[in-house]
Amino acid sequence: MAREENDYAPLKLHVPEPPVRPGDTPTFDKFVVPEAGSVRKPPIDTDFDQIRDLGFDIIRVLDDEGKAVGPWAEDISDDQLEAGLRAMMRTRAFDERMLKAQRQGKTSFYIQCTGEEAIATGHQMALAQGDMNFPTYRQQGLLIAQDWPVTKMMNQIYSNEQDELRGRQLPVLYSFKEAGFFTVSGNLSTQYIQAVGWAMASAIKGDTKVASAWIGDGATAEGDFHTALVFASVYKPPVILNVVDNQWAISSFHGIAGAESSTFAERAHGYGLPSLRVDGNDWVAVYAASLWAIERARRGHGPTMIEWVTYRAGAHSTSDDPSKYRPKTEHEAWPLGDPIKRMKQHLIAKDLWSEERHTQAEAQYADEMREAAIEAESHGTLHDGPGPSAAEMFEQVYKDVPPHLRRQRQKMGI
Amino acid sequence: MFDDKPETTRMNMIQAIRDAQDVMLGKDDNVVVYGQDVGYFGGVFRCTEGLQAKYGTQRVFDAPISESGIVGSAIGMGAYGLRPCVEVQFADYMFPAYDQITQEAARLRYRSNGQFTAPLVIRMPTGGGIFGGQTHSQSPESLFTHVSGLKTVIPSNPYDAKGLLIASIEDDDPVIFLEPKRLYNGPFDGHHDKPVVPWSKHPKGEVPTGHYTVPLGKADIVREGKDVTILAYGTMVFVAETAATETGIDAEIIDLRSLLPLDIETIVESVRKTGRCVIVHEATLTSGFGAELSAQVQEECFYHLEAPVMRVAGWDTPYPHAQEWHYFPGPARVGEALKSVMEAI
Ligand SMILES: Cc1ncc(C[n+]2csc(CCOP(=O)(O)OP(=O)(O)O)c2C)c(N)n1
Ligand SMILES: [Mg+2]
């Protein structure tokens, strides 16, 4: 027997909406910014249920004056701090050059990471040789922070004669095994679980290599994200589960990925996994939190999820126009500021940097990227100059080109 | 098909697809529209622009980035009695939903003996030609036609797109609605170095306002001819027309419009007349829909054939980025096949 209905009011579907839309005044008044230095730093072998609070708070090191405060202000050498700033500046200069190249028709597509430079650069500097990133399309900073030759990246973007991927892959979906940079898929979330598998292999083989998995806020809705957490929870392999919450997934604000109801870091708790929530625009916090989680993994204490709180300051990609769905100046209202400006302020406060050196460095990196682009362009651009041959399209489908593909290649007349 | 002599408007394919959803949202309270970026923004290809403003967030809304979630929830809504018309942002991204599509939507009716059905439409942009690389270019139609319980539709122009989409939403079975993205703005003929004529200058860009249907399972003879029958759909319809013009071969071109149900009668009648058949699709060759067409033509027309049935298709490789136009089966490759079947006497 079922109960009979009576006087219930009609239900309504809850469809999350961002607080503002184009034409409104940007605001983040619901976003609570904890004070820098206020979050504790437990030892790396602490049990996850002793550190649940770290999935709600935001670890921040740089305060409003640019001072590094609190327990997460690691002993970072002056050289390293400067290298961090320089890596971010080079990443931004690289993006600017490649955006320009795309607008000039030298390639089909580009994705920038403006406003998120601290995350990939800081994280990379905490990893070791032999570790493997499973990046998304927005982690170019992982390569630039290790001084990976930018011309190699540009050659891929131009699909030119020197492109190591032989023109087969969409621009920015790099693959650089030597750099610990796994081949990037265009299909979201698929690589999150692959990173867990890679880390399981490291444990099976008795190695101490760490995998670092990357995903955006939007893509956490995919099943593979949750599958990865289950496997990470079951096997406790040395993997870092990065979630970059840049507030937007193309036109959908992070509420469409469930952020109204919980933080992303909190979701790890349901699987018994520890998590940190970190100011992603604070390079020092990024470096310190990464180091903590990586060390934890490498010493056999298992996976950590890190939610990087940041803001996608640019368009989703060169195919996107964000003014159609969010206020044009929203990025200026973002309470965690710009990562380069904050790091610059920190270095100046420490007497390691100056406005003049900053201006000088900006010019230097603009030059570096211009020259690298000229060099790459001398090997061709997508529609102009030499490129991978059409015949190469048939290679690497299998280890050896099978007879039916050989026949098709012959039919093409090459 | 028409209630009265219709008024018409000029539309491109995006506007026609949007208009079909608009008509159905207005006509049937049970129609809901959702998908990634579909709500406020109106879809990355703008196919739902303005619909949320007109019908509200209870009928048109954004979905999380979970294709299995989008299709799975649509099945639940369909079982409740709604008629969801959902978007998968690119056909390349339907794979997380493949389980829900093939094992669930396709079989709800069968396994419950008709107690539960999934009257949903899953729209997805398909095909290449936009330098989208391997994950914005694929043509997975044969992965649907191979599954019992699904209908698979692929329009080639605004008129058909609107009429077929309305028919699909009204259909009581799950329909996969593939939208050739290279045709959204104009009838692309494979000559990538030439500008595309916009739909505003093409007769099929003249679209009736209001409700009409193009029935599923009815092919369209878009060019009459006596020498050879070309079977094509989506983008390849215009490539085939161009190949016929350029070779001067008197080809009869059939736009299949719906792959399942398939209008085999129209195909057989044409091939029996011409005695030759060339099948063209952008998807990879091996186990592509062309193999099914070729088999059926052979079974029905064997004694009328003057030449082997030929297929022109994408090469059996992932869709490359830089080599896109070497991969794409353009008018030259179709023309060669036409010449070869004409020589085979
Ligand atoms: C399986 C799959 N579905 C949809 C897409 C289309 N798509 C590409 S990027 C993107 C938004 C991703 O947002 P988020 O995960 O937040 O990462 P962000 O772009 O913000 O870095 C979408 C929907 C895709 N690439 N793969
Ligand atoms: Mg995002």
From TrEMBL, chain A:
It is an enzyme of class 1 (oxidoreductase). It catalyses: N(6)-[(R)-lipoyl]-L-lysyl-[protein] + 3-methyl-2-oxobutanoate + H(+) = N(6)-[(R)-S(8)-2-methylpropanoyldihydrolipoyl]-L-lysyl-[protein] + CO2. GO terms for molecular function: branched-chain 2-oxo acid dehydrogenase activity. Pfam families: E1_dh, OxoDH_E1alpha_N. Its cofactor is thiamine diphosphate. GO terms for biological process: branched-chain amino acid catabolic process. Residues 1-28 are annotated as: Disordered. Belongs to the BCKDHA family. This is 2-oxoisovalerate dehydrogenase subunit alpha. The lineage of its organism: Bacteria, Pseudomonadati, Pseudomonadota, Alphaproteobacteria, Parvularculales. The gene is bkdA1.
From TrEMBL, chain B:
It holds the Pfam family Transket_pyr. Residues 11-186 form the Transketolase-like pyrimidine-binding domain. SUPFAM superfamilies: Thiamin diphosphate-binding fold (THDP-binding), TK C-terminal domain-like. It is an enzyme of class 1 (oxidoreductase). One of its GO terms (molecular function) is branched-chain 2-oxo acid dehydrogenase activity. Its EC number is 1.2.4.4. Its cofactor is thiamine diphosphate. Keywords: Oxidoreductase. InterPro entries: THDP-binding (IPR029061), Transketo_C/PFOR_II (IPR009014), Transketolase-like_Pyr-bd (IPR005475), Transketolase_C (IPR033248). GO terms for biological process: branched-chain amino acid catabolic process; response to nutrient. PANTHER family: 2-OXOISOVALERATE DEHYDROGENASE SUBUNIT BETA, MITOCHONDRIAL, 2-OXOISOVALERATE DEHYDROGENASE SUBUNIT BETA-RELATED. This is 3-methyl-2-oxobutanoate dehydrogenase (2-methylpropanoyl-transferring). The lineage of its organism: Bacteria, Pseudomonadati, Pseudomonadota, Alphaproteobacteria, Parvularculales.
